[in-house]
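#onboarding

Welcome to the new folks! Below is a worked example of what a typical request in this channel looks like: someone posts a single protein sequence, and someone else replies with the predicted structure as tokens. Don't worry about understanding the tokens yet, we'll cover that in week two.

Example request:
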Amino acid sequence: MADGLRRALTSPKVVFAALGALLVLTVLLTPDADGRPGDPRLTTHSAAPQGARGLFEIARRLGWRAERREAPFNDPLDSTAVYATLDPPSDLTANEAHRLLDAVRHGAGLLFVVRKGGALTDSLGLGVSTDLQVSTVGGALAVDSAALRQAPCSETPWPEGRGAINWQDGEVHSYWLTPVAKRPRDTVTFASVWRLRDPSDPRPPASDSGRRAAVNVRSPAATGFPYGRGRVVAVADPDLLRNDVLRVCRWGLGVTAVRMLEWLGGGVSQSGAHGTRRLVFDEYHQGYGTHANPARTVARFLTDTGLGRTILQGIAAGALLLAALGARPLLPRARERVERRSPLEHVSALAEAYGQVGATRLATRRLIHGLRRRHAHGAWRRASDEEFLRAIAARRPAAAPAVSRLLDAAARPLTPAEFAQVGEAVDDIDQRMRE
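Example response:
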């Protein structure tokens, strides 16, 4: 019994069912990696912890004419506006990045989150660190103002105490920028982080920060630099602009975000008053607006372009050719079907075949076998045909002449007249067996 239970528990059905249940439980019970459920997009439509609605509302309250752009950067852009593309899930295309940077060269401003392999990142020669380090002494974010750290703040928790960002030491930790190309001298640093000093770095540690500078080095997390007639602000980590980070006043990132916007606004060629500045948030690449439809795009290509119309004509010509080749000048012939004979036809065919070759002995044996199959019972079923006929003659003496005729016919060839008598003998035995 124990072996049977062990085999049942180790059968493939039980094992795979247990693995499937374990997988479902793991998916349902595993918490989020950062403890912040919800939409992770840095979009101004979202007032959730990971959204950017806070930055949008701050800009409006400070006099910016903040708006959301839900269309791609396909048309010429306003060179007097400030554009913000905040780590969208769908990156800008090369053409869109070209138009956006062309507007910046003519006087626009650009606030963007650096992402590896992004079109803007490559065009501006920027990079971002591959890891997020925690300093051995103090927090990772370098807050310059001691008064800001000690400011009396009262942040109310998010509903049910969930959603807020949670760094282990209560300080902000961020990626940092790693410029690929040399930055201009008038580059401005808006936020920096303390990171572990590279042991192979030959530079001596700074002495103005005491014990922390002996093991750490400051690296920029948000910088601004001129680009043609305009200005660009690059942010290394999208967390620096999220709602649940800007709302914590002791971290000072709300003030930092305002300083970045004001610096960008100072680089825009203004013709109007302070309140007429445009701040355009890119929401198209966050998933909003009307996006391309593959079916509609293919249909427009086939009908509105010369190459498309040529392809469409080729498809129509191919369809006509297939229709022409598939047409038949003559009706197809019906397939002949060969059916098997019915049982009666089969008997007649066998009788004709036996008569053609004179197989009287074989026909006689078949008749005797049929007779035995109809009347043999009990021990007679195990007896041979000859034993069955002799038993009939012993039990019914009146049938003895017919039995003798059958035994004689099974042993030698017969004439047609004699074979007719065989049939009469079979009929005689049938009648006597039914009496």
